[in-house]
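Hey, I was hoping to borrow your eyes for a little while. For a while now I've been wondering how a particular protein folds. The fold is given in discrete form, as structure tokens running alongside the sequence. Could you read through the record and tell me how the tokens relate to the sequence? Take your time with it, there's no hurry, and the full record follows here:
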Amino acid sequence: MGDYIELGPVPCNEECYATGKPDYEKKQNVEMQAFKNQLQRMFPNGWFGIKRFPHDFGSYGEVVAYYTPETESEKIAFHVEANLPNQWDHDARRELGLLQKTYAQQVGMRD
């Protein structure tokens, strides 16, 4: 897969679902997928993924930018890191709403 830079689970000034809360991993996956999609819209030449890392309370996730050292993909990854969004864009807010509704339906929760 190459090297990667951790970019966080959500945009810089947005709240993320906290580690250890009920259904943490599933709900964080919704947020990370929306963030990954937002970054892909902003930086179409980037190569993004989601990685999980060990933590005292289980694991936590981060959106990452993959790159191959000493190639254009490395320049793109570091450009992305230096220009991360502060907030969700309009499409991500809409996507979060749709993903959260789908998740709630899958686990039998109410809106």
In short: Helices lie at 24-42, 72-82, 90-106.
